[in-house]
Amino acid sequence: MWPLLRKWPGPRSRIVRDFHATVRRIGRQVLVRHKPVKMLDVGEGQADWSFIGLLIKALAEDPAGERRLSHKEVMTQINTWLFSGFETTAASLTWLLIELAKHREMQDRLRIELRQLPDDAEYSEIARLPYLHSVVYETLRLHPPIGTTTRIASQDDIIPLSAPISTKSGDLVNTLKIAKGTHVRVPIRPVNTAKEFWGPGAGTFDPERWWNISAEEDGEADVVGGGGSHSGSSGRIMHLAFGDGSRACIGAGVALALMKVVVFVLVRRYAFALPHGAQAQIQAVGEPVARPQVKTRTDSDPAGTAVMMGIRKLMG
């Protein structure tokens, strides 16, 4: 919000600068490896519709001698893809394994379901597994990788409220006036864990709230919420880990697919446990992507420690 602070010579600024430099270097390597001829010539009469292929195509000059995207714009897209495509999903997978380690009965139940499919199962089969879908959705609800997001009002608007609130002057209002250009901060994590939406057990890990009742044609399970719920713009019961509306995360489908496939491979073959027991206190630390850390009770280590995981390979 204050760009000048990015130049402040503090430790956080150095971390951010190093991160951006690393991502830019990787982005340049991606462009060098995927030359236009290599990316667009993928077969007889076939075009490369992958993310990188489309960016390379947009970078190339069209017959009129103009580029649809500049080199800087392509690099920005790659940087966003590298950050959003692995950091958030990796954090979500970490939280999922922690919850399974804390709830061994849920882990065993999930493993039984996963082993109903062969090792080489198609993703369409994996996506239809109801308990796997419930575990993934509950993890994203309780531990959204991004805690808040910001939107800018494109026009004057009035937001209706479900319950009246008191203004600074003491007046009760049922609506909020939002002027064009206003920055609106959306509290994803508080909404995802609000008792008003999810019931008295909003702060607990409960995959049962997402128990499936049907399957959509595309293979993704339809879900309903138990003990309270929040409906998105589509009318479906949902969480806000991917946002909502026309500005929702465009990579939601890819993230869900990646999480389900990784869990399918790992939980079938390995058992996960927390060395300090299921009662270990684990907190979310850091922004914008919240990572898990073990809470400590000593003054010498106020920041906590990384979460250690015990992994045991299963027979059969």
Automatic annotation (TrEMBL):
Q: What is the protein's given name?
A: Cytochrome P450
| Cofactor(s) needed for function | heme
Which Gene3D superfamilies does this entry report, sorted A to Z?
Cytochrome P450 (1.10.630.10)
Instruction: Extract the PANTHER family matched here.
Output: CYTOCHROME P450, CYTOCHROME P450 12A4, MITOCHONDRIAL-RELATED
SUPFAM superfamilies, alphabetically?
Answer: Cytochrome P450
Q: Does the record carry Heme as a key word? A: yes
Q: Which UniProt keywords apply?
A: Heme, Iron, Membrane, Metal-binding, Monooxygenase, Oxidoreductase, Transmembrane, Transmembrane helix
User: Would I find Acetylation among this entry's keywords?
Assistant: no
Q: Which InterPro entries match?
A: Cyt_P450, Cyt_P450_CS, Cyt_P450_E_grp-IV, Cyt_P450_sf, Cytochrome_P450_monoxygenase
Q: Extract the Pfam families matched here.
A: p450
Transmembrane segment boundaries: 248-267
Q: Which organism is it from?
A: Mycena chlorophos
This protein's pathway: Secondary metabolite biosynthesis; terpenoid biosynthesis
Q: Where in the cell is it found?
A: Membrane
PROSITE patterns per the record?
A: CYTOCHROME_P450
Family, according to the entry, reads as follows: Belongs to the cytochrome P450 family.
Q: What is its main location?
A: membrane
